[in-house]
């Protein structure tokens, strides 16, 4: 889900359950066993469970060597152990799939990122100071449109959290209608503000251009060619099917069943650490986009206090240290993340494409987030895993 795009920020500062067994599977160049996992990688994933996440799974890669690890339980009710191959809701990591499809369409000459929203979705963004003629597709993808995000309001989620109807359906167009009943946060291109509505509109643009559903187009262009068989895009189905991790709130309540309808192209997808890693390796490695479009993907906005956000991806500097414990030059990486009911995840790829980390853990408390409170346990697990996987 895209309540916020805060995966790394959420974890960076981020009390406790006992650590259960950690299982690590290593492969090297297709062999059944390989070199040992990077120092501290397994321990860092275990740390997240020690600090209060029921379960965590992770994937790390250095060159052709890959490692997978899991800690804690997949299901608190049954005690089933977490396993690296299990599915989870990837939330706002979905946005990178959506931006990829639109960039492919631009590369094919079927649209321009500087096209107005009005050109493809006439009459959809208008009223109360909203003007689709002034908003471009690029501004949707880099969150500079100024369009309001109603999923930041507690009342939006009342049917789910207060009424207890986890199957409740709110369509993407209904979310957009709520958005434009509100004045924009700022004029198009005049600031940066993360808004899930931007990516719902982006999904509708995909459909207007291709005359196919956005999930079908993502499957045709990305999932099928890359063989991402454990990745799916539910529209209204509230279940996570197949072997999966259960997600929880801070009180330990199971949040796994939750309608993805309102999140759609802003964050409805389900995947695994392996599939996410394969997608991002292809994305940043040039298999999915032409050079011009890859440059656009990685061109960040430039506003005071805004993150280095490109088109569905974010650039960040990873702090590393030398062997003597001294600080080394920061390592540049590209990041996507996701945070939604029950699940928090992050995916990082170094700028040279040689190293990756994908990590998911099974707490995200939406109600706490909406009340302005920390929605996940405080843990140093992610920073430690990030350093272990990406730094020397």
From TrEMBL:
<keyword id="KW-0645">Protease</keyword>
<dbReference type="GO" id="GO:0009002">
    <property type="term" value="F:serine-type D-Ala-D-Ala carboxypeptidase activity"/>
</dbReference>
<keyword id="KW-0378">Hydrolase</keyword>
<protein>
    <submittedName>
        <fullName>Beta-lactamase</fullName>
        <ecNumber>3.4.16.4</ecNumber>
    </submittedName>
</protein>
<feature type="domain" description="Beta-lactamase-related">
    <location>
        <begin position="43"/>
        <end position="359"/>
    </location>
</feature>
<keyword id="KW-0732">Signal</keyword>
<dbReference type="InterPro" id="IPR012338">
    <property type="entry name" value="Beta-lactam/transpept-like"/>
</dbReference>
<feature type="signal peptide">
    <location>
        <begin position="1"/>
        <end position="28"/>
    </location>
</feature>
<dbReference type="Pfam" id="PF00144">
    <property type="entry name" value="Beta-lactamase"/>
</dbReference>
<dbReference type="InterPro" id="IPR001466">
    <property type="entry name" value="Beta-lactam-related"/>
</dbReference>
<keyword id="KW-0121">Carboxypeptidase</keyword>
<dbReference type="InterPro" id="IPR050491">
    <property type="entry name" value="AmpC-like"/>
</dbReference>
